[in-house]
Amino acid sequence: MWAALNWKDYTLLDCSDGQRLEKWGEYTLIRPDPQVIWKDRRKHPAWKKADASYTRSHTGGGSWSESALPEEWKIGYGELTFSVKTMGFKHTGLFPEQAVNWDWFSELIRSAGRPIRVLNLFAYTGGATVAAAKAGAEVTHVDAAKGMVLRARENAALSGLSDAKIHYVTEDCKKFVEREIRRGNRYDAVIMDPPSYGRGPKGEMWKLEENIDELVRLTVSVLTEKPLFFLINSYTTGLSPSAVAYILREEMIPRFGGSVSADEIGLPVSQTGGVLPCGSSARWENK
User: Fold this and answer.
1) Tell me: the pLDDT tens digits for 183-224?
2) Mind giving me the DSSP string for 223-273?
3) pLDDT tens-digit profile of 114-133?
4) Can you give the pTM of this predicted structure?
5) More exposed terminus of the chain, fewer Cβ within 10 Å: N or C?
6) CA-CA distance, 46 to 141, in Å (whole number)?
């Protein structure tokens, strides 16, 4: 498993009974997590004094408990700074496990010895965008949700990247890639973080298992002759990282060589010393 080990402002304190106990800066949150299938193992004392908790509704969705949390607050990761807040569907605007991927591709960008253009699809609030830009890349940040693109701009500014070469695009990712192919625009690297399920503005249904192969094939067409890396993240329960890696291997290696690897990504649990699985990633790199 690839674990995000370098956080200072975030800690997964404990997990049990379908929930995580997390420290986000100075605030402690309890959030549901379907991977936490073990029960009656709440050992950390902060379970009894968390600042806020998210409870799922039996009819779908859920809500945060009333608390004295600020509307939003900041946490840092190395040279990066992010704004976090309690949002719908248990989210905070950041996936801390992705830091293990930020570290990986940031080193590739810094070591490339040439300008690197990165295409970040389903880019959310810009964690990967900010990390890639801080490493020196020019980034095109694409997400269909206007609010998430605005938050990405805010996160870039917090990290001192207001004037960085980041292009923000509010558009359906597949349609954007199709336009980039017609325009002849090319990228040295791709980051792709597609949802498990989604619905487009005209009711189009997205299901990762059914659509990821087509999207990868399409996106490979916008790569330069010597691409640097291709990263696909998945939070779809039951979808093996090896299955996504198979797609990458079939599309990338015959054209560009290189190597493909895949694994779960996770977060260390400070109370127990274990690692909580939090999704998976498949990586292609040009070596």
Assistant:
1) 999 999 999 999 887 766 566 666 888 889 999 999 999 999
2) B-SS--EEEEEE--TT--HHHHHHHHHHHHHHHH--EEEEEEEEEEBTTTS
3) 999 999 999 999 999 999 99
4) 0.95
5) C
6) 37
